[in-house]
């Protein structure tokens, strides 16, 4: 377990996350929104396309979840101490997956209820995208999976907030508010875990985190037409993972008591990536 944080350390992060949302504030796709009032006629073509885009991203949950299942197995392939660590993480991942699946269901429900798409047609389209693999190739250290998710969750939260700014359909406004709040909580968990890795392992975390930033690509960035789609919705809201880098910088900076050369170099590198100008979204 030399490359992991302790099971107790991870359990504290998981417990904090699970306690952060009281039952009365939880929501679901079936009962928490006024679907009868949803009306896509309030949306511009760009906003419709943006809703379709994020539905595809959220609906790829099986691919995301499978990565954690394979990287942090909860079975006889690991010894009991590692199993206990992974079992604590599993408490988080199943809740995370349930919430992300709610996002996918709610966005698809909005498309149907608002008149954007028919259910069979939408299901067929999502299956076409969903069957395409999602990989985080080359990641060898556990902190890299948490760093990737930290950036993705914060970038998605920012995107939902930007998209909501000009929405006039109150149902979609309500939905985007709920989505952004969930993504903010998910980001907080991943930031907590990355912070714990930095405090336990220190300078050794600089290179793995740098590698995530150096080769970061948003989920499904390799699907056919992704970049054209991202450019098409750029005038609605910018889906750019570099928007999350200032938050990653803050996490790293707060986690270390004393700056070292590796940490300073990491922060300079992240800052240099954050300030690169991108056109309309992901690079």
What do these coordinates show?
With 283 residues, the protein is mostly helical. The protein has one domain: Ribonucleotide Reductase, subunit A (Orthogonal Bundle). The chain is built from eleven helices and no strands. α2 (45-59) runs antiparallel to α4. It is globular. The two termini are 35 Å apart.
Fourth-level CATH superfamily = Ribonucleotide Reductase, subunit A
CATH class: Mainly Alpha
Structural class: mainly alpha
| Element-by-element helix/strand order | HHHHHHHHHHH
Q: Give helix % range.
A: 55-70%
User: What's the count of strands?
Assistant: 0
What value does the Rg take, in angstroms? 19 Å
The CATH topology turns out to be Ribonucleotide Reductase, subunit A
Number of helices: 11
Average pLDDT reading? 91
Low-pLDDT stretches: 277-283
Range of strand content:
under 5%
State the major sheet: none
Tell me the number of structural domains. Answer: 1
Euclidean distance between termini CA atoms: 35 Å
Secondary-structure arrangement, i.e. CATH architecture: Orthogonal Bundle
